[in-house]
Amino acid sequence: MDKQIVDQKLESLRRCIERIQEKQPVTAKELTTDFDKQDIVSLNLSRAVQLTVDIGLHIISGLSSPVPDTMGQTFDVLADKHVISNELAVKLKKSVGFRNIAVHNYDSINWDIVHSIVDLHLKDFSEYAKAIVAWHDNNKA
After folding, report:
1. Of 19-33, 35-49, 68-82, 107-121, which gets the smallest average pLDDT?
2. What is this structure's pTM?
3. C-alpha to C-alpha distance for 21 and 29, rounded to whole angstroms
4. What is the rounded distance in angstroms from the CA atom of residue 44 to the CA atom of residue 117?
5. Is the pLDDT of residue 106 over 80?
6. Is residue 141's pLDDT more than 60?
7. Is the pLDDT of residue 81 over 60?
8. Active site residue 99
9. 96 vs 99: CA distance, rounded Å
10. Active site residue 121
11. Phi and psi at residue 81, to the nearest 5°
12. Among the options 99, 115, 121, 136, which is catalytic?
């Protein structure tokens, strides 16, 4: 694993989380009516999901494990290899569903659900970053 690549992606993930927090609407109604916040939140949430997958795939490439067939399976492999917890893997797999809707079917996004994701699950991305750093620190060659 190239730590510099992972560190760069973790920094990008941190910026995405920060950007969402800066523009996080107080209510779901506010998000449904503010197109700028919709764009900022959905773009950065989609990026955060993609970055978690990219980091995971980079780590998996250095392990003796087959490459996952889907983005969601990335988190299963990371859990199987004790990089992240099973509970976190389940949460992050759900985030892939949002990303797929945001990227492929943007006009059908339910902004109430997005508000709930940001309100209740944004911390999952920070938890993931901490798990990656802890795993790396415990597995230095």
Report:
1. 107-121
2. 0.90
3. 17
4. 13
5. no
6. no
7. yes
8. yes
9. 5
10. no
11. -90, 5
12. 99
Domains, the chain, with CATH or none: 3-138 (1.20.120.580)
Q: Which of 19, 58, 82, 104 is catalytic?
A: 104
Selection from 95, 96, 63 nearest residue 80 by Cα: 63
> What does the DSSP assignment read for 86-131?
HHHHHHHHHHHHHHHHHHH-GGG--HHHHHHHHHHHHHHHHHHHHH
State the Cα–Cα distance between residues 108 and 63, nearest whole angstrom.
38
Q: Give me the phi and psi of 84, to 5 degrees please.
A: -130, 165
- Gap between the Cα atoms of 31 and 63, Å rounded: 41
- Tens digit of each residue's pLDDT (9 = 90 or more) over 23-41: 988 889 998 899 999 999 9
Contact (Cβ atoms closer than 8 angstroms) between residue 41 and residue 114? yes
